[in-house]
Specification:
7 helices; 3-stranded antiparallel β-sheet; 252 residues; 13% strand; 7 strands; 38% helix; alpha/beta
């Protein structure tokens, strides 16, 4: 059930009997030379379509922009930043809270959004509600460790092959060759560096450690449409099951 397709009396009717809402949030950002800028929005939108087929939860319009500070130097990336994203999502949730929503499920497609979503969740809890974050790529890792991936790597590429293969351009693919911070501080995943076997965060823009714009252990060359289809189905099914259980949580 899509909020954007309802009249206000129908929305009022929903909130008389339900207090759960589902909100997608993504980003427009670099995902390597081979993947579309909208990857982190297109995947949640696809999952929302699948969830709608199996759930009566109210689905709000997706927020397509996110906090993408580390990727903002790549052409086409749109960065709201964590503070503005917090304010936007917070205002959306405030409006829904006013109308009767108390359980907020955020289907998130981008890791940079997590800090903002966390803050909104704390605010909602103080008002007597509750928020859950469904970070789809992390849930997929837990469901099958073979699906674990990095940014723009095999996991996300497989998902996009299942959604729309015309958006994936492997002819432009460049292999990931990590740049170390120094001979003693080597790349350790994302912006972390390895020092004597210990991983230490050193926040940097992605282009400082990845010339191609993607990174991770899962090469996009390993991605298949079949992998993406199986992963997305499992993720959508998990979301439906989670929402059913979340609706039974006591808010007292």
């Amino acid at each position: 059930m899509r909020l954007s397709n309802l009249t206000w009396p129908k929305a009022e009717e929903y909130f008389r009997g339900h207090d759960t809402v589902l909100i997608g949030i993504g980003s427009i950002e670099c995902h390597g030379r081979h993947m579309p800028l909208g990857t982190d929005t297109l995947i949640p939108d696809f999952l929302l379509d699948k969830i709608e087929q199996k759930s009566d939860v109210l689905i709000c319009p997706t927020i397509p922009y996110g906090a993408t500070e580390s990727l903002c130097d790549y052409p086409g990336t749109i960065n709201l930043g964590t503070e503005l994203l917090y304010q936007v999502l917070g205002r959306v949730c405030d409006s829904l809270f006013q109308h009767g929503a108390r359980r907020f499920v955020i289907l998130n497609g981008h890791g940079g959004n997590i800090k903002s979503i966390d803050r909104v969740g704390y605010d909602i809890q103080r008002k007597g509600g509750i928020l859950a974050e469904l970070n789809w790529w992390l849930m997929a890792w837990d469901m099958d460790p073979a699906w674990k991936g990095g940014h723009g790597g095999g996991e996300e590429t497989a998902a996009m092959l299942a959604i729309d293969p015309s958006c994936v351009h492997m002819e432009y693919f460049m292999p990931f060759e990590p740049k170390d911070l120094s001979p003693d501080l080597t790349f350790a995943g994302s912006f972390n560096v390895n020092c004597n076997g210990v991983s230490v965060p050193v926040p940097r823009h992605v282009d400082r450690y990845s010339s191609c714009g993607w990174y991770g252990p899962d090469s996009p060359e390993t991605a298949t449409k079949e992998w993406g289809e199986e992963m997305l189905k499992a993720t959508a099914d998990f979301c439906v099951d989670f929402i059913k259980k979340f609706e039974r949580v006591s808010l007292g």
